Amino acid sequence: MTEQRVRAVSSVLLVALIVLAIAWEGWLSPLRPEGSMLILKALPLMAAFFGVIRGKRYTYQWLSMLILLYVTEGVVRAFDPGLGGVLALIEAVLAIALFLCTLVYCRITAPSRQKVNEPAQ
Q1: Total number of domains in the chain
Q2: Going by fewer Cβ within 10 Å, which terminus of the chain is more open, N or C?
């Protein structure tokens, strides 16, 4: 898989996760009928957006650690009854896919894997 494809897939997954977090806690199935402050869980993902779009390796590195919180939340809340459980399962799947993409991107762009210009003999 090429670097551009991994960046594109990561970007789509990140946007999907942001939209899901906002929609879920905003009006689809909030913890409280008026909405929930858990909508703020989308902010850390938004902070990673431009770094992911631009292909900043450092952003992918810290996002790979951050995204595990969303995996955990999705797995734990997947046992909630009704729509909340379904949304949590979707969150877990998106977060796991994004986690795998961040790992692949970090592996592809590792300095040790970059081609080194060897001197001509």
Answers
A1: 1
A2: C
